[in-house]
Amino acid sequence: MQRHIILKKDDSEIVDYDHSEYPFYIRKGRLSGYPDFMVPNHWHDDIELLAVISGSMSYSINGEIVSLEKGEGIFVNSGQMHFGFSVAKSECLFLCILFHPMLLCSAYPYERDFVTPLLRIRRFSFLHLRPETVGRTAKVRTCRL
Questions:
Q1: CA–CA gap between residue 45 and residue 47 (Å, rounded)
Q2: Which pLDDT tens digit goes with each residue over 113-141?
Q3: What is the DSSP letter of 120?
Q4: CA-to-CA distance for 88 and 19, rounded, in angstroms?
Q5: Mean model confidence pLDDT for the chain
Q6: Using CA atoms, how far apart are residues 63 and 67, in angstroms rounded to an integer?
Q7: Beta carbons of 65 and 115 less than 8 angstroms apart
Q8: Tens digit of pLDDT for each residue in 73-91?
Q9: HEC per residue, 28-87
Q10: Distance (Å) of CA 58 to CA 10, 66, 76, 86, 134
């Protein structure tokens, strides 16, 4: 079954949240579910966490390509152009979680001091998550704009 995401004219995704009152989305997906094994290039205000369950994929964030293998993942900051794909059209099973950054804001000081500054760092477009970095300080790879 082919999956389609709905995009506005500015290429922002209209996210189909799990519950209309809570901006949270959790889905398993397969690259084969998208035309030509490619999710359309898009952006959204949500933070995206994607983890590869099996197979592999390439992932483009603002034009920078990251290879994701089984057991790896990626954190994509709010407002970044991104998409997953497989040039070889090989299968990849993945878990995708989207959530609005304001869910991290239990009080205004948290929003002001921690969340908003993170969203405004232009150099911090993504973080490649690898098994060897779990439990340690993650190796940050950022797209240079």
A1: 7
A2: 877 777 776 667 888 989 876 555 444 44
A3: H
A4: 35
A5: 86
A6: 13
A7: no
A8: 999 999 999 999 999 999 9
A9: EEEHHHCHHHECCCEECCCEEEEEEEEEEEEEEECCEEEEEECCCEEEECCCCCEEEECC
A10: 23, 6, 14, 6, 21
